[in-house]
């Protein structure tokens, strides 16, 4: 009641009396009070204040007059909106911006509309996405880093607060039908469980329909984190040809057709964000063959850069006097330095990546074609952003068949890749990523990659925008500086919808981006940019753009180095300076020539940092993955399940990493023997499983698909009640109270003991344990397995337990660091830095 009263008060304060309409004239259709009546709303307070009843009510209906509140609709003639963004695509990857990978759907939007060459991301996925849907900087909305690395500061806690409503909420409350297909990386990882809360799921952020995956990436063949609205679903089970990239396009097309059939005059907003081309790179075999047969990469990554650079000049997407930035010989091998085996493996990696990009674009093309088939393309604003950051360096210097291995600091040698993974690269048997050098090449003509916020290789994205009804300069190129926060104000200007001042009783913070709509007019093709100042920051690496200059923090940590001590003083920058009016690619550092300009730019950066919640700067990487967060498991050391329960996501599940723990399963085995999963977390690419196989108890650790460590009883369990236990005693210090960014106490050895009815039946030591993370796209499941098996040789999902689970208990004993332990870790860290 108090909240409703506040809403009323704020409505009056902002709008005055009912019927006030600042900003634009109200549009009413039909006879007021009739079932067909519609109205637009001022939009400054959302949802709209309830319409007064203007009929009459007597004792009998025959003497009364009905009155229906008008249906809220957007202003007449507004466009449908299709907002598309791909994942981990460097500026020079797609054909639209000089790349060799065919992207005809992106080409089509550029040909029918405009190509933007000076558009920027945040350098990392969920931060860019948070900025995209809110129109505010990523720190302003709590996404200074990805959700899985959130820390307890306002700019980094992964919580989009209620004073920053999304474009979904704004358009929905103004009468659009809103939907979201694909990647959702903007729900806190500790709020992704099936019990919610759901206010920061897509359906709680203004998107009426959601079909997509939760978290940073997913297995496209077997997406265990796929949800429809707020329910996890598993359509791949029993469907070996399933691939989410195609299924998602099917789902979006079906949804748009439903809207068009039921309400043909109803405008829609579709937010379409596929997993491509984030790892795992999972195209279909047909696409792999199509790209491999083109032999696009046989001459290697250095030649590829030269080809892309020449193409870019031909297309006019970079200036004719732009310089190709130098290859980092001190960091990456040249192609000529590689062995024949390395070349063979690396070509396989990039063929699969390119196939994934081409496949993703093809499916996007189907969605665009569906809009045309409905006869709505002319009045549809299509914004296609190529990548949420630059090409990813998370594949290590040699690539990896399993991205989960990389995040645990494990490198898979090329000879192992060739022997065990070459033929299945890109299939459901891999969670694959290509070598860093390919990503660097796909960021041509710029320096660096994803995660690097100070240089354009991490933050420059190609964008194409079409709106045939309005944009007449077909095939035009726009070079104005813009940023992902500019998309929301562009949509609002295109629709004539006001940015709200109050949403659900909460006063709104200002939109921080500026509209790009002025660039739609050919007369403004060369107009100065309206976006004059923009900061960038990620993992303590940063830059500041202002009026054609950019001051960039020198990169001291390559993006593929995630382990090791972080810079304890990231606020102390080693500034580089670039005059972008003369230097499009950041090729010429002129800091020494303009020391006063450097000081001016530095002052602007700290001013912006204070304004947008950027502080405190933190240069740590891997250690943030194990930072405690306020999940449903926080502060608990005992967990109990008394019935099967599937679908608890990684971020909401109890972690047994870097700790001692005991699983105790009280079960009843049926006559004829038992089989099936008791409890599991993770799957094929990292995780554990406690199950009964052909009547025998098994506990298994899958070590990133490179090794499986197994405890198994020799005897078949008899029918009846049993108590099965797996007890693990960890030898390490754990995370406890970590010295700054020290990882010395994690991933150490331990001894596991499997017991049946109190008797030890298998004992084995693990020389190493996983230090940081399990397969993040897989769930914790009790009673069956929803995703991929921890061992394909043992079982296939769902592998439901055939007996009865009375009770499963997990008890975790997390090591606590003493003052002496901390002192030792700090001394070891100092010694490591000295030796470096």
Automatic annotation (TrEMBL):
* Source taxon at top rank: Bacteria
Q: Which residues form the signal peptide?
A: 1-20
One Pfam family, short name please?
Answer: Sulfatase
Ranges of residues in domain Sulfatase N-terminal: 79-497
Instruction: Report whether Secreted shows up as a keyword of the record.
Output: no
Which keywords describe this protein according to UniProt? Calcium, Hydrolase, Metal-binding, Signal, Transferase
CDD domains, alphabetically? PAS_like (cd16025)
As one GO molecular function, the record gives: hydrolase activity
SUPFAM superfamilies tied to this protein? Alkaline phosphatase-like (SSF53649)
Q: Does the keyword Cell wall biogenesis/degradation apply?
A: no
PANTHER family attached to this UniProt entry: ARYLSULFATASE FAMILY MEMBER, BLL2667 PROTEIN
User: In which family does this protein belong, per the annotation?
Assistant: Belongs to the sulfatase family.
Record protein name field? Sulfatase-like hydrolase/transferase
Organism name: Stappia albiluteola
């Amino acid at each position: 009641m108090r909240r409703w009263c506040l809403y009323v008060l704020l409505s009056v304060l902002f709008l005055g009396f009912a019927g006030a309409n600042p900003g634009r004239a109200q549009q009413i259709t039909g006879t007021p009070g009739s079932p067909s009546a519609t109205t637009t709303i001022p939009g400054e307070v959302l949802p709209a204040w309830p319409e007064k009843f203007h009929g009459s009510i007597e004792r009998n209906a025959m003497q009364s007059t009905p009155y229906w509140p008008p249906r809220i609709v957007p202003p007449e003639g507004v466009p449908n909106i299709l907002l598309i963004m791909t994942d981990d695509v460097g500026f020079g990857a797609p054909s639209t911006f000089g790349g060799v990978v065919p992207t005809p759907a992106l080409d089509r939007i550029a040909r029918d509309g405009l190509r933007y060459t000076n558009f920027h991301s945040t350098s990392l996925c969920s931060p860019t996405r948070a900025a995209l849907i809110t129109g505010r900087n990523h720190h302003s909305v709590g996404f200074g880093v990805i959700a899985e690395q959130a820390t307890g500061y306002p700019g980094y806690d992964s919580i989009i607060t209620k004073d920053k409503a999304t474009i979904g909420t704004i358009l929905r409350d103004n009468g659009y039908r809103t939907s979201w297909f694909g990647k959702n990386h903007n729900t806190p990882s500790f709020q992704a469980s099936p019990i919610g809360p759901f206010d920061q799921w897509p359906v709680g952020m203004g998107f009426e329909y959601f079909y997509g995956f939760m978290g940073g990436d997913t297995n496209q063949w077997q997406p265990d984190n796929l949800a429809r609205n707020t329910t996890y679903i598993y359509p791949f089970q029993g469907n070996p040809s399933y691939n989410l990239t195609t299924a998602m396009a099917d789902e979006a097309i079906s949804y748009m057709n439903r809207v068009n059939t039921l309400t043909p005059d109803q405008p829609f907003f579709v937010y379409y964000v596929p997993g491509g081309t984030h790892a795992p790179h999972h195209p279909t075999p047909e696409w792999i063959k199509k790209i491999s047969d083109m032999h696009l990469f046989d001459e290697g990554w250095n030649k590829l850069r030269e080809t892309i650079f020449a193409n870019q000049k031909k297309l006019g997407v970079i200036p004719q006097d732009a310089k190709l930035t130098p290859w980092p010989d001190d960091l990456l091998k040249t192609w000529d330095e590689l062995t024949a085996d390395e070349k063979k493996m690396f070509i396989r990696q990039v063929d699969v990546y390119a196939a994934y990009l081409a496949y993703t674009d093809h499916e996007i093309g189907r969605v665009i074609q569906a809009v045309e088939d409905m006869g709505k393309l002319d009045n549809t604003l299509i914004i296609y952003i190529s990548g949420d950051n630059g090409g990813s360096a998370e594949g290590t210097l040699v690539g990896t068949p399993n991205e989960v291995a990389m995040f645990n600091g494990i490198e898979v040698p090329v000879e192992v890749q060739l022997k065990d993974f070459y033929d299945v690269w890109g299939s459901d048997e891999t969670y694959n990523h290509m070598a860093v050098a390919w990503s660097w090449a796909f960021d041509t003509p710029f320096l660096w990659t994803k995660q690097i916020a100070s240089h354009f290789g991490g933050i420059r994205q190609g964008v194409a925008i079409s709106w045939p009804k309005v944009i007449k300069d077909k095939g035009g190129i726009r070079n104005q500086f813009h940023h992902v926060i500019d998309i929301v104000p562009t949509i609002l200007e295109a629709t004539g919808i006001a940015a709200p001042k109050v949403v659900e009783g909460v006063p709104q913070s200002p939109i921080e981006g500026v509209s790009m709509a002025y660039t739609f007019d050919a007369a403004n093709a060369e107009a100065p940019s309206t976006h004059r100042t923009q900061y960038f920051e990620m993992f303590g690496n940063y830059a500041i753009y202002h009026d054609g200059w950019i001051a960039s923090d020198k990169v001291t940590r390559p993006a593929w180095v995630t382990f090791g001590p972080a810079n304890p003083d990231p606020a102390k920058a080693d500034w580089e300076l670039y005059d972008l009016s003369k230097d499009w690619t950041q090729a010429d550092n002129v800091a020494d020539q303009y020391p006063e300009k450097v000081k001016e730019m530095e002052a602007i950066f700290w001013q912006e940092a204070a304004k947008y919640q950027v502080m405190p700067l933190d240069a740590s990487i891997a250690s943030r993955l194990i930072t405690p967060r306020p999940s449903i498991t926080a502060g608990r050391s005992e967990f109990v399940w008394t019935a099967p329960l599937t679908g608890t996501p990684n971020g909401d599940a109890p972690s047994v990493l870097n700790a001692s723990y005991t699983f105790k399963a009280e079960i009843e085995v049926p006559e004829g023997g038992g089989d099936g999963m008791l409890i599991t977390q993770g799957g094929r690419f990292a995780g554990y499983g406690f199950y009964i196989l052909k009547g025998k108890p098994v506990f298994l650790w899958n070590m990133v698909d490179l090794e499986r460590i197994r405890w198994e009883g020799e005897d078949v369990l008899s029918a009846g009640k049993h108590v099965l236990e797996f007890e693990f005693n960890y030898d390490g210090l754990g995370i406890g109270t970590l010295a700054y960014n020290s990882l010395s106490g994690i991933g150490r050895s331990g001894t596991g003991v499997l017991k049946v009815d109190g008797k030890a039946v298998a004992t084995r030591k693990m020389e190493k344990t996983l230090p940081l993370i399990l397969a993040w796209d897989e769930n914790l499941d009790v009673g069956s397995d929803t995703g991929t098996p921890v061992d394909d040789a043992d079982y296939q999902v769902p592998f439901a337990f055939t007996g009865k689970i009375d009770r499963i208990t997990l008890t975790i004993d997390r090591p606590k660091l003493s003052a002496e332990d901390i002192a030792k870790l700090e001394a070891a860290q100092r010694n490591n830095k000295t030796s470096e």
